[in-house]
Amino acid sequence: MSAFRDRRPFRAVLGGVAALAFGLSLSACGGSDEGAVRMALSNGYGPSGPVDDFIAGLSCYAERNGLGKPLVTHADGDVNTQLNDMDSMIARANQVDGVFVIPVDPGALKPAYDRADKAGISVVDPLSPDNSGKFLTDASAHVAPDDLGVPQMIVDHLTGEYADAKNIVVLGPQPGQAMSDTRSANFKKAAEQAGLKVVGEIHLENITTEEAQQKMEDFLTQHPETQAVFSQNGAMARGAALAGKSQGKDLVITSLDNDEATLNAVKGGDIAAAFGADLFSVAFKASRQVEAIQRGEKAEYLTVPYQKYTKDDAGMTASDARCGEYQE
Fold this sequence. Notes:
The protein is α/β, with parallel strands linked by helices. It is built from ten helices and twelve strands. It has a six-stranded parallel sheet, sandwiched between helices.
């Protein structure tokens, strides 16, 4: 999964009347079916983008078990807001069994994870371990996209479908984000082993299409030998495609993300292939993990494979329509 960054304006106001709605939402859940658990989502970022898939997965689990819709909070990138959100959930421990957390700052949320555990609330997050097997958080369980395996998937696609595209540039956020740093390192290692040459790495501040286009145009001027792109985000990949067109270069662009705009770029031929995490399944499986924990079982680290989307198969069912067809 690419970064969960979404800095669009915060759409929910947590306080006053919203706090009352918070309590009513939990009360509406009522009692759970035998073995089923009442889940909540603490999202550290904005209320759009990939978060919709997580919400849909949690909602599907609740629907299938006769429960009300899960409580959802958004911190809009503010760690203090997310800490407050989690404390509000912990205060209602008799109404919440598990919280699926998308952490804005994994280290800063450790006290909240500990408080939830002491209150009997299981915390699950979608973070993968680093290459040494260490996790950034002490969550009760981790259910994550296969971030460690997807770099090899992309390299295999490039070498299998575009054997002549040897020189590649990596697009990503600024260094210091553990998962994107690990993906980049794993991609460069797999690329080297496959005989590809990483001619450079471009780090973006704001992760926008416009910034990616500008920086990619500058890079192509300095490195005209560039033939392919691996982007850790769909918006950056779309910017790279625009840069290639403006410079008259036919770039082979691969990208993480399976949002609508990125898949449309795949359908249109601007992006050769996109690799998207099944976040709906991640959230549904997280609910099952909480079930296991509440039964006293030890939760194992689970990964959900990435899916590859090319021009011939870039269709995807909308997240809110997946419940009827989803099979565990």
